[in-house]
Amino acid sequence: MTNYLSLKDRYADYFRIGAAVNQETILTEEELLKQHFNSLTAENEMKFEHLQPKEGIFTFEKADQMASFAKENQIEMRGHTLVWHNQTPQWVFEGNKGSLLTRQQLLNRMESHIKTVMTHFKDPFYTWDVVNEAVEDRGSQLLRSSPWSTIIGDDFIDHAFYFAKEARPDVKLYYNDYNESSPVKREKIYQLVKSLVERDVPIDGIGLQCHWSLDTPAIDDIRQAIERYASLGLSLEITEMDVSVFEFENHRTDLTQATKEMLDKQAARYDQIFSLFREYHQHIDTVTFWGVSDRYTWLNDFPVENRKNWPFIFDEKGQAKESFKKIMTFK
Ligand code: XIL
């Protein structure tokens, strides 16, 4: 058997291997990034509040540094994210002197943000998450209510994709969401995207965030999600994968190391998940982890503050975990 040293080389015939980075991890994880990854996402630096904190004032410096690093190292980038209800400054939804913003005014702000950002970041971007997390998790309501949907109406999604297409007809335009494998939400995401496709709204793909745990979601639910989304004829990306060693509602914060039992289970889980991804590689363009190594993860503070987590395939020293070995080993 060939001895592969690099994850991106091992998966060259399957999909890109991506990582989310921030200002710190792009430095601390530099060697791992260069060796194993050929796609990069900014964890926060390309969100609305970072790029346009005040109306018309665009702050691109931090994001530009990431794009330069990626370019220098032949790494491509996915843009994240243009229209979202979180990490978007309040001014976006406010009128002058406390007056209510009209639908047309918010559409103008949306258009200006999308076009300015997408034309600024050219090379090496291949995908943008145009709309993030618009679907409601619970009940029968399809879309969550947000300032975007309240002020513009549910067709804010259509407009976001049209503006993005006008700005960059050459990159792939994605709808991205979490709980993407849960039976109720995956059906809603499917219905939303199906209606976009049927109305010829220019969408190219669905991003599956994949914030998962050791036991959930069930592998069969993941398979059904991939099949259902792929049946729309769009491409898919795994956009924010991590495998938490805790279930979402577990509140224990006493652990300073992952237990052996957790790590064994995590390795088996990564093995199973990546074999599923390989099975569907014709539909999957990129598999992105929401971080690089266990030295840093947003899960250290989410959804439970100060609950240290170990969700990745590299440990706190940047060494390969059993999970890494498992996903590197296949025929
Ligand atoms: C998270 C970041 O990792 C955190 O640092 C930040 O405080 C909040 O956002 N869905 C998304 C990502 O699309 O942008 C989120 O990233 C995680 C959930």
Q: Which features characterize this protein?
A:
globular; 331 residues; eight-stranded parallel barrel; binds (3S,4R)-3-hydroxy-2-oxopiperidin-4-yl beta-D-xylopyranoside; alpha/beta; 9 strands
Strand portion: 15-25%
**What share of residues is helical?**
25-40%
Mean pLDDT: 97
**Helix count?**
12
What class, by secondary structure content? alpha/beta
Uncertain runs? none
**What can be said about the biggest beta sheet?**
8 strands, parallel, barrel
N-to-C order of helices and strands: HEHHEHHEHEHHEHEEHEHEH
Provide the gyration radius in Å: 20 Å
User: What is the CA–CA distance across the termini?
Assistant: 9 Å
Bound molecules: (3S,4R)-3-hydroxy-2-oxopiperidin-4-yl beta-D-xylopyranoside
Q: In which order are the strands of the major sheet placed?
A: 1-2-3-4-5-6-8-9
General form: globular
DSSP strand count: 9
Explain this structure to me?
Helices cover 37% and strands 17% of the residues. 42% of the residues are buried. The radius of gyration is 20 Å and the shape is globular. The protein has helices spanning 7-10, 25-28, 30-36, 48-51, 61-72, 103-120, 147-151, 156-167, 183-198, 219-230, 260-279, 322-328; strands at 16-21, 39-42, 76-83, 125-132, 172-177, 205-208, 211-213, 235-244, 284-289. It contains twelve helices and nine strands. The mean pLDDT is 97. The chain binds (3S,4R)-3-hydroxy-2-oxopiperidin-4-yl beta-D-xylopyranoside. (3S,4R)-3-hydroxy-2-oxopiperidin-4-yl beta-D-xylopyranoside binds at residues 43-44, 132, 178, 209, 240, 298.
